[in-house]
Write a structure and sequence with these properties.
single chain, 770 residues, alpha+beta, five-stranded antiparallel sheet, DNA-binding
Length: 770
DNA sequence: AGCTGTGGCAGGGAGG
DNA sequence: CCTCCCTGCCAC
């Protein structure tokens, strides 16, 4: 009988002393893998271990004639290896296998089938996760960066004139090395690079945009120079395939490179993932990110991209120093951002490099698939349909109000899933709630451990705790994800609707007690506490009293108190803390698509409104108008450029425009222009910075110019356009004034002198539309 | 060999 | 002018 008694799905199959750093495919046939372990003296050992393929029991309605019993018998009577149908984690291989079984069931062809990568089978069937009992720096992490002397154009693998001139490497043990092409051929340089890489034998290779540039470029140059780019642990060359990663609303496409026996980590992906939450990185370049985190040395060497070729001719040592600084910074960024992903690989059957470049839904699925294969249980196919409901959002009061308390339900969706017995209908083994429960318990334990630990240990424990949190919070999303094997849209709906009901209940409780609810969003409530609740202690007591009115397992936490709040619209507000600090939320206050001068204007107006200084708002508005008129920009073109991310390929854009499905847009038109002029093509996921110039066409996209083209000695930006933009930006504060007052504050008409005392801030009770 | 979800605001082109 | 519709960005 199949083994259905499941041990802890998070931990089964593990050996606490395991220090596996890599699992590598042997040959192409693939029923053996080589398992590398790093020993305590920092050397490597390896063993070759067999992969036992798994048999699939299909209960899919689609395959009604599938002779399940026959296959089951054969499996049990076999030599202990299931030879008839192999199932793998990859969805593509899974569909292939299903089609294959269907054909076999109808008498066409052989039931034997192989697909997928042995590493994945191996990790899944044994339940192993990598790096058990290890810390990030137990691995040998090498950083790689190359410099190419490209004259006037962007380096391209297709251009034979663009040779590699420098290969810089460093590692986390303090070693570093810069190879360059002085006095020898590129071929010799590349050959030495391969030798050094193989000799250093890193477990992990890190680089910034290493998927997008360094690896494919080196690969192509090696091919041209006749050097085998054999940097795999088994002497193979990297293999590559197209992939994509979603960062909130953005999707980045790139070519993955896999190196046998090693993990590739692209810090560009880590940086983008980080920015989904923080959203305040200036840009995603190595230099920008390093400065943002404070990893850039004060005396670091900088060389502009366009000056690299010239620097290489005139002062090569300077370029060498620059390249070395690049890899040192890459190492610091990688270490800083890798923690939680690294610890994820101790709970998810996934290689480190894979975990870095996949989203949380893939990780949850890996946990479930491991449990199902372990139990010899078939996997479901994704359910069809869509999710209908989401969080409840409303605004009840606009204007400046205070004092404010923020209360939110702790882990709303995970709590609902745990306490309302939510699970996908297809989860016959009940692993979904079991894994969620284990992860939650482990996270709470880890959090408690972190709080009690010494600082050095606490950082590591906190990274672990973050890793748990990321996965836990993604369970809900994966329920509603149309491509997830274990999805269930009606259960996702039930979670969202339950959340809405709980939130409405909390609003009612606060109102009944005499509180005034300002704004709510999904799991949190901003409110003015009842008159009899004064001071932090009483506020905390009031909030914990709310928990008592809620079902068991749903807890409301006290998550902040503020002197006042500027409430504008749903999901758009600002908070003034008791320490004078300001927080801004919402696209009308913080959007990066607003020009920098406008963003600053919004922030300053907000601060003044929270301070009640209407006179200063008016003066600020007048000052800003004059500055635009006089083209006085603090930071040159960066003050008024707009940056927009390209989300679709130019061909798709052009096709949709031709079909009338979308309108022309400045960012795409500029990208097209550059491509036509032979410049570096703009890839999906990249940002295009532009400004609006004077004259030149009525429509915005006709008047747009690349920000780099702006010349401070001959400024040609349209001041009329930017004055309009200022007024549009001011429009965001319209809810705070009567229409007449708004016109007084945000206009130049002070014929009779502006009298701030005649203007008052307006507080409006909205009906709430929910 | 691939991608968590819904709700909401701002901006711009296109057409009345 | 206005409305409609699409895209990008943001909150949670």
């Amino acid at each position: 009988m199949p083994d259905t008694a499941l041990p802890d799905p998070l931990l089964f199959g593990h050996d606490a002393t395991e220090r596996i750093v890599a699992v590598q495919t042997l040959g192409g046939a693939g029923d053996r893998v080589r398992v590398y372990r790093r020993l305590s003296d920092d050397t490597l050992s390896w063993d070759d271990e067999p992969v036992h393929p798994y048999f699939f029991l299909s209960d899919l309605r689609l395959i009604e004639d599938f002779p399940r019993e026959r296959y089951r018998r054969q499996a049990l009577e076999g030599d202990g290896h299931y030879r008839h149908l192999l199932a793998f984690e990859s969805r593509g291989a899974y569909w292939d296998a299903l089609r294959h079984v269907e054909r076999a069931a109808s008498g066409e062809g052989d039931a034997a089938y192989t697909a997928g990568g042995p590493e994945q089978q191996y990790l899944t069937q044994t339940g192993r996760t990598l790096f058990k009992g290890m810390a990030l720096d137990d691995l040998r992490r090498l950083q790689l960066d190359i410099e190419v002397a490209a004259e006037g154009t962007f380096p391209s693998a297709r251009n034979p004139a663009h040779a590699v001139v420098i290969v810089a490497m460093s590692d986390n043990r303090g070693w570093n090395r810069v190879l360059d092409s002085r006095g020898r051929t590129e071929r010799e340089l590349l050959a030495e690079m391969v030798d050094v890489l193989v000799e250093r034998d890193p477990d992990v290779i890190e680089g910034h945009n290493i998927y997008g540039f360094d690896l494919p470029y080196l690969s192509e140059r090696c091919r041209r120079a006749g050097v085998r780019f054999a940097i795999g642990r088994d002497g193979t060359e990297p293999r590559s395939f197209p992939s994509a990663m979603r960062f909130a609303e953005r999707t980045s496409a790139f070519d993955v490179a896999e190196i046998a026996g090693r993990h590739v980590v692209d810090t560009l992906l880590q940086v983008q993932a980080y920015d989904v939450v923080r959203r305040d990185l200036p840009n995603y370049t190595l230099k920008g990110v390093a400065r943002y985190f404070g990893f850039a040395e004060a005396d670091r060497t900088y060389v502009e991209g366009r000056a690299i070729a010239r620097t290489w001719r005139e002062d090569p040592d300077r370029l060498v120093a620059y390249a070395l600084d690049d890899v040192l910074e890459t190492g610091r960024i990688a270490k800083h951002l890798s923690g939680s992903t690294f610890y994820l690989t101790q709970m998810v059957p996934m290689a480190y490099g894979t975990a870095v470049r996949t989203g949380p839904a893939a990780k949850i699925e890996a946990l479930l698939v491991r449990g199902y294969l372990h139990a010899r249980q078939s996997l479901p196919r994704p359910g069809r349909g869509g999710q209908m409901s989401g969080g409840y959002t409303d605004v009840f009061v606009t204007g400046v109000v205070g004092p404010i308390v923020y209360a939110d339900v702790e882990s709303l969706y995970p709590s609902i899933m745990l306490h309302y017995d939510v699970r996908p209908a297809s989860d016959a083994l009940g692993l979904f709630p079991e894994i969620l429960r284990s992860l939650t318990a482990l996270r709470l334990q880890t959090k408690a451990d972190a709080a009690a630990a010494a600082p050095a240990q606490a950082a590591e424990l906190d990274a672990r705790q973050q890793a748990f949190k990321i996965v836990i919070n993604s369970f809900y999303g994966s329920l509603g994800f149309s491509q997830a094997l274990f999805n269930d849209h009606s259960e996702a709906d039930r979670v969202a609707r339950t959340g809405q009901e709980l939130l409405r209940g909390i609003i009612e409780t606060i109102r009944t007690a005499g509180g005034r609810v300002i704004e709510v969003d999904t799991d949190g409530v901003f409110f003015v506490p009842p008159p009899n609740v004064a001071g932090e202690d009483e506020e905390r007591r009031f909030v914990s009293g709310i928990t008592d009115t809620l079902p068991t397992g749903i807890r409301v936490g006290f998550d902040g108190r503020f002197r006042s709040m500027l409430s504008l619209k749903k999901k758009n507000y600002a908070l003034l803390g008791y320490d004078g600090s300001l927080k801004f939320r919402g696209s009308s206050l913080v959007s990066r698509s607003t020009e920098r001068f406008g963003r600053r204007f919004v922030r300053e107006v907000t601060a003044l409104l929270l301070a009640g200084d209407v006179d200063a708002v008016h003066k600020l508005y007048l000052r800003q108008r004059r500055a635009i008129d006089a083209r006085q920009w603090d930071e040159g073109v960066e003050s008024f450029q707009r940056a927009e991310t390209l989300k679709s390929p130019l061909e798709d854009y052009e096709r949709d425009v031709a079909a009338g499905r979308r309108a022309r847009a400045a960012a795409y038109e500029l990208a097209k222009r550059r491509a036509a002029a032979g410049g570096r093509p703009v890839r999906v996921g990249e940002r295009v910075a532009y400004y609006v110039a004077r004259g030149a066409g009525a429509r915005g996209f006709e008047a747009a110019r690349f920000a780099q083209e702006w010349d401070p000695t001959h400024p040609d930006e349209s001041t009329a356009h930017y004055l309009d933009r200022l007024d549009q930006t001011a429009q965001r504060f319209e809810p705070v004034f009567t229409p007449a007052d708004f016109r007084l504050v945000f206009s130049e008409e002070d014929l009779f002198g502006f009298d701030a005392s005649a203007v008052s801030l307006r507080v409006v009770e909205e009906n709430g539309d929910g």
